Amino acid sequence: MPRPSVPADRPDLPCPTRRSLTMNARSRILASGALLVVLTIAGPSAAPGQEGAPAVDAAGFVERFRLGWTATKEHMRPADDAGWKVRMETLGGLVRLGDAAVPTLIRALDDPEPDVRVLAAQALSYLADGRAADRLRRTLAEDGDAAARLYAADALGAIGGLRPSPLLEKVEAEDANRDVRAHVRFALERDGKPLDDEVRSSLRTLDPRKLDAARVGERAPDFTLDDALGKAYRLADFRGKQAVVLVFIYGDT
Amino acid sequence: MRDRLGDFRAAGAEVLVIDPHESYRVRHMLKEAGFDPEDLHVPVLADPANVVSASYGVAFQMRIHTEWSNRPAVFVIDRTGVIRSAHRAKTFDDRPTPADLLGELAKLRAD
């Protein structure tokens, strides 16, 4: 089992400043206005994009995220935090919208709230749309939030065709955050290969009702995943044969 | 835990590791950690869109190395496919020991 290294508190890690707290307050104020209408129509727990549920556009998903995800300087989110579900549903919803979500996400890279810019860059790393490349390069070069720069590097790699450039060399050598530097390397290690469409498709078909579905005493949620060499494993194949110890790691690189 | 894989096999259990990254990143992680991806004793499965992590309720709950990743967690699933125990980490290094897990597996066999 790979042994994770200690995520030491580092000064270059983004932390929620008074600024993002102010933004959250602003979000709450906005919630009392027009945005509440969007949320009321769609319902906070409606399965977006599914039959019978009203459609939510990309801006609607971004606003849901703004309201549902709370900034934290802690490495671990609280056990009862529901923000991760909002993040997951937002990413799933934006990927289902596909091309139509891209212009909104490009604009969201200019959002005053760092967590929204991070979300936009992360969503673009799944959508991997070449129209976002120029704006993502600017985020990589200039965004004050390390996580936004990190996901911008991921997104530029995911688009495909990424080759070494003066900008990438500069960020890889000089970015203040070592994880951003590492992700530029990861992006280049793709050797120009774009994100596999299967990744998008697994998000597109994600059923919001299946989030957080693992309970002691109940049937384990089934899945099929490939190992590092491409061999598929399906959990249900072990049923009737073997017990399984499922170990979720954070993947230390 | 790697040293005791034989004990897990003897207890009739398969160990599956789930990493929330694309498979090329999983291979990179394994090499950095000193493992040969071609010669692993435990399957390390790639969950690049976090959808399996999300179904087990552990996605995007820990910020590690600036990005949002899984809350470390271990689920013991019996041979009928039912979850018998769930350990969700409170800190990045909070996880059951191999001895704890082998004890749980022994209990399953006794049931």
Write a short abstract of this structure.
The complex is a heterodimer of chains A (253) and B (111). Chain A is mainly alpha-helical.
List keywords for this structure.
heterodimer; A: 253 residues; mainly alpha; Leucine-rich Repeat Variant; two-stranded antiparallel ribbon; 11 helices; 3 strands; disordered N terminus; B: 111 residues; alpha+beta; Glutaredoxin; two-stranded parallel ribbon; 4 helices; 6 strands
Your description of this structure?
The complex is a heterodimer of chains A (253) and B (111). Chain A has helices spanning 18-31, 34-42, 58-68, 83-97, 102-108, 114-127, 133-142, 146-159, 166-174, 178-189, 197-204; strands at residues 224-226, 232-234, 243-248. With 253 residues, chain A is mainly α. Chain A has a single domain (25-252), classed as Alpha Horseshoe (Leucine-rich Repeat Variant), CATH 1.25.10.10. In chain A, a hairpin with a 5-residue loop joins strand 1 and strand 2. In chain A, helix 4 (83-97) packs across helix 11. Mean pLDDT of chain A is 84; it is low at 1-49. Chain B has 111 residues and is an alpha+beta fold. Chain B has four helices and six strands, in the order H-E-H-E-H-E-E-E-E-H. Chain B has helices at 5-10, 23-32, 51-55, 98-110, and strands spanning 13-19, 44-46, 62-64, 67-69, 73-77, 83-88. Chain B has a two-stranded parallel sheet with strand order 1-2. A two-stranded antiparallel ribbon of chain B has the order 3-4. Chain B has a two-stranded antiparallel ribbon with strand order 5-6. In chain B, strand 3 (62-64) and strand 4 form a beta hairpin. Chains A and B meet through helix 4, helix 8, helix 10, helix 11 and strand 3 of A and strand 1, helix 2, strand 2, helix 3 and strand 3 of B. Strand 3 (243-248) of chain A pairs antiparallel with strand 5 of chain B, so a sheet runs across the interface.
User: Can you name the CATH architecture of chain A?
Assistant: Alpha Horseshoe
Query: What value does the average pLDDT of chain A take?
Result: 84
Output the helix-strand order of chain A: HHHHHHHHHHHEEE
Unreliable parts of chain A? 1-49
Order of helices and strands of chain B: HEHEHEEEEH
Q: Helix- and strand-based class of chain B?
A: alpha+beta
Arithmetic mean of pLDDT of chain B: 91
Lateral arrangement of strands in the main beta sheet of chain B: 1-2
Under the CATH scheme, which class of chain A? Mainly Alpha
Distance between the termini of chain B: 24 Å
The count of strands of chain B amounts to 6
Counting helices, strands and paired strands, the structural category of chain A is mainly alpha
Question: What form of chain A results from the Cα inertia axes?
Answer: globular
Please give the order of strands in the largest beta sheet of chain A: 1-2
Summarize the main sheet of chain A.
2 strands, antiparallel
Quantity of strands of chain A, as a count:
3
Supply the CATH architecture of chain B: 3-Layer(aba) Sandwich
Which residues of chain B sit in consecutive blocks of at least 5 with pLDDT less than 50?
A: none
The biggest beta sheet of chain B reads: 2 strands, parallel
CATH names the topology of chain A as Leucine-rich Repeat Variant
